Amino acid sequence: QSENSDKSSAESDSETEVEQVSVYHKLLATLKTSPESESEEEEDESESEEAGESETEMDSEESEETREADGGEEDKNDVPEQEEATATAEQMLSQEQADGADTSCDPSHGVVEEFTDVKHESEFSLETNFMEEESGDGNADKRDSGSSQAFSEDPFKQHMDKELEEKEVEKMSALPKTSTQSKWPRLGQLTFSSALEKHKTLKADKEVDVKQLYLHKPLESTWPRVNKQFLSSVNKPSDPFFTPLQRELFCIMNTYRDLFYPERNALTNGEEIRHAYCLHTLNHVLKANAQVLSNNTRRRNQKPGTDSDDFRDQGLTRPKVLMIVPFRECALRIVHVFISLLEVNDKKKIDVSNKKRFKGEFSSDPEEKPPNLKRPEDYEAVFAGNIDDHFRIGVAILQKSMRLYAPFYSSDIIIASPLGMRTVIGAEGEKKRDFDFLSSIEILIIDQADIYLMQNWEHVLHLMKHMNLLPLDSHGVDFSRVRMLNLNNGSKFYRQTLLFSALQDPQINSIFNKHCSNYEGQVAVRNVPLSGSISHVVVQLPHVFRRLEAESVTSVIDTRFQFFIDKVLPEYRDAIMSHTLIYVPSYFDYVRLRNYFKKEELNFTHICEYAKKGAVCRARRFFLKGEKQFLLFTERFHFYKRYTIKGIRNLIFYELPTYSHFYSEICNMMKATDSGVDATWTCTVLYSKYDAQKLAAVVGIDRTGQMLQSKKNVHLFVTGEN
Predict the structure, then answer these.
(1) Where are the beta strands (DSSP E) in 553-707?
(2) Quaternary arrangement and interactors, per the entry (predicted)?
(3) How far is Cα 66 from Cα 70, in angstroms, rounded to an integer?
């Protein structure tokens, strides 16, 4: 049954549009998110109507841009890939030819049945293996059995050995958290919060003494070599281990506090952050496994009849770390870092089971790369390599070996996408579902959380609801070895959550505030944007910010729609206001507006993430030539395609964009139009008091304060970059 825990139908991500939509809405239906889901059928109808219209040639630049396959989120094979960004990961894996076991590899992503490795079960079993004295890990055994002071100061030992009293658990469940502010040199403004009184504010280490980090062997010797690519000559010779950012992040991670870092950037710091959390993950897993193997040896050597309550060293299920990443390329890079950190030198290679299969299924095919299309640098960085978003893989690590495709209940680490988790967790009422393997997760890492807002945020919420629940089955666990914290259903109070995002967002904040109960407390980076992305608008353009009054967060959706059709749309109905692009972040708002425009028989066209190539071409052409007055345009289409839309003269942001730099990008599309007088261009933005974070990211913190206090519309005029 353990092999079946992570099986799924492995649906292909390149199915037809109708199938994509139905699967998407089936999932939404199970989660009861919106009554509007049935309106997608109308989308299909409208596409078929447009399909009958005559097709003419677009200009060469347009046709080059739209030569790719259709713009659905699920159709990922057409997105440009960045070979150079993936070269190191792929080269490293290809150099390792000494593969063990299964070398059968199906490079196609649509495998019929999900593969799990059953060959190496006994070799990687924690129950039946013992500590190798000559491996150097015997130190952990000596430190543990000798109860040395050094080992007792190890953050791992301190965190996992603490026994929470009932009144402390009650406090964490009932009382609001107390918070303190601190400013660190690199991270900036930090908010420390905790429900327990004994709350110490952490200070930033200016220099790192590697011995105080309590890194498990071989990490102490391999980390400087693996991480040197990020260290510049600017770094002091006294700190050959971390960049300033890594040092402060790892300082927090190593105390087992929860961490929210909303300034991850795929172009600048994404990889150094990935390396830092991979180091923390391996350090945790190696220590946990060494403790189990060490206790196995002690149990074997103990006299019969001795009390064995000293050996409580594991959870109800084996998986300790869950790493949520958006694409297969991310999983490939993580495994690459793991292998590099476990290999002491070129002579001491570690044995990695099923490596060839992994390389075939997780790396990208250079031949699939489409023609060179101009896309922003951040787009190329995010969508590098294999961008399939439906995957999960178990990883087991034991001393000098790594096992890829381990069954979940025999894994130490699970690397998965939100969709990969969603299909194995299943929904209520489904026969084939499993989430017991999440019962004893000790570290949860959610990287690039902002991308899940563009994929399907419901999958993340669904996952969080199933974290650290008591398992429905025992899965062969030895209860005499299970920590009391797990038996008492207290594992959620010991789980560390590391959350990395490119932006602050209420939905991401909600995950951190509502679903994280770590007794150690939380640290959130809370820097405010000073200038905002409006300063990167290079076209001369009047920006009118129109405030709408909503009574609550739940009512703002209806209030915005009513405000738009009553106050904003009438001003644009005149034929003079042609070439109006309406930017809509929410897909459900887009469906609602599209249905309203149809009912009112307005002259409009629309582009969303589910639109086929032909429909996108026609919509862009009609809009450019002025045959259609309005263009409804979804944020997710822009996220996945980043086409330049030509012919814009009037812009309406139905809601502020999720990514602040999309604001300047969309505004700057106006300069792509050859004809048109600058003075006639307009930009209107709808906002409410609940959009404070998004507003600050666009206009800067000073203007935001003024705009939220003022009840009037705000007019800003931007004269190029400033």
Answers:
(1) 580-584, 604-607, 630-634, 650-653, 682-687
(2) Interacts with CAPN3; the interaction is required for CAPN3 translocation to the nucleolus.
(3) 8
Q: What is the DSSP letter of 348?
A: S
Residues 404 and 495 in one domain: yes
Is residue 112 assigned to a domain? no
Is it the case that residue 275 has pLDDT exceeding 80? yes
448, 500 in Cβ contact below 8 A? yes
Distance CA 685, CA 656 (A): 7
Q: What is the mean pLDDT of the chain?
A: 80
CA distance 345 to 222: 8
Q: How many domains does the chain have?
A: 2
Note whether 314 and 292 are within 8 A (CB): yes
More confident residue, 121 or 262: 262
Say which residue, 687 or 671, is predicted with more confidence: 687
Q: How far apart are CA 370 and CA 52, in angstroms?
A: 28
**145 phi and psi angles, rounded to 5 deg:** -70, -30
User: Which candidate, 268, 280, 693, places its Cα nearest to that of 508?
Assistant: 693
Q: Give me the CATH number covering residue 674.
A: 3.40.50.300
pLDDT digits (tens, 9 = 90+) for 548-566: 998 898 899 999 999 999 9
Residues 424 and 571 in one domain: no
Per residue in 621-677, pLDDT (tens digit) is: 999 999 999 999 999 999 999 999 999 999 999 999 999 999 999 999 988 775 545
Same domain, 507 and 557: no
CA geometry: angle at 279 spanning 278 and 281, to 5°? Answer: 60
With b for 16 or more beta-carbon neighbours within 10 A and e for fewer, the 311-335 pattern comes to bbbbbbbbbbbbbbbbbbbbbbbbb
Report yes or no: 681 and 544 within 8 Å, Cβ to Cβ. no
Domain of 172 in residue numbering reads as 155-299+322-368+376-525
Question: What is each CA distance from 328 to 246, 282, 295, in whole angstroms?
Answer: 24, 20, 36
Which residue is associated with the tokens 């040395």? 148
Q: Residue 100 and residue 611: Cα distance in Å, rounded?
A: 45
Residue 677 CA from chain centroid, whole number: 42
Percent of the chain with pLDDT over 70: 75
Q: Is the pLDDT of residue 39 over 50?
A: no
Question: How would you classify the pairing of strands 392-398 and 321-324?
Answer: unpaired
- For residue 610, give the nearest of 19, 110, 35 by alpha carbon: 19
* Residues whose CB falls within 8 Å of the CB of residue 192, separated by 6 or more in sequence, listed in order: 179, 180, 181, 182, 199, 201, 202, 257, 521, 522, 523
3-state helix, strand, coil in the chain (%, to 5): 45, 15, 45
Measured in residues, the chain has a length of: 722
Report the chain's terminal Cα–Cα distance, integer Å.
62
Whether 126 maps to a domain, the answer reads no
Counts for the chain of helices (H) and strands (E), in that order:
27, 18
Sheet holding 401-404, edge to edge: 178-184, 188-194, 522-525, 258-261, 496-500, 443-446, 321-324, 413-416, 392-398, 401-404, 351-353
